[in-house]
Amino acid sequence: MSSSEQYKRQIMNDLAQGNTESLDDVPSDPSREYQNFDDFAQRSSHQERRQLFSRINHNQIPPSQMEPELKKAIEKIKPNERDDVARAFFKHFKSRGLDERHLEQQLGLSTHHPNRMSADDVSKLASFAYHNHPDIFQDVMAEQPAIFKFLSNPLVGAALGAIASKWFGKH
Known about the structure:
The chain has helices spanning 3-16, 37-43, 46-53, 63-76, 79-95, 100-107, 119-132, 134-143, 154-170. With 171 residues, it is mainly α. The protein has a domain at 67-171.
């Protein structure tokens, strides 16, 4: 059995047993209770989303499973949200000294203008961040959480679901 299958089985077992961890740093304000992920994405603060997404272990989800999921999810978000995601990635990369034109060439993007980028271009940016700058990936996901509601791979969903259920279960 592959390590991916073992990991998936462990997550499913943990979820089936109601295995939760205490999130002592989560506020218990009743006005901050979230009904679902969309509600969380709309009403939560950037810091709360950052805290949730920072719990995603970069090594938990193999790139071979994350990349196709990111591509499918990015294709499903609205074009203006996709532009915002691309802008956010470029902003964070620029703070690391990586300029848009260099990334365009390095990643084989069709353009370095966020409003003209295809879903494939934004997927390449997201994959690059996931592989090489996981902290940037987490920051952008906290800023632009729309992508996560479209992730459908069971392993990816289970990992995020386990984290989110622990978060929501605390409220």
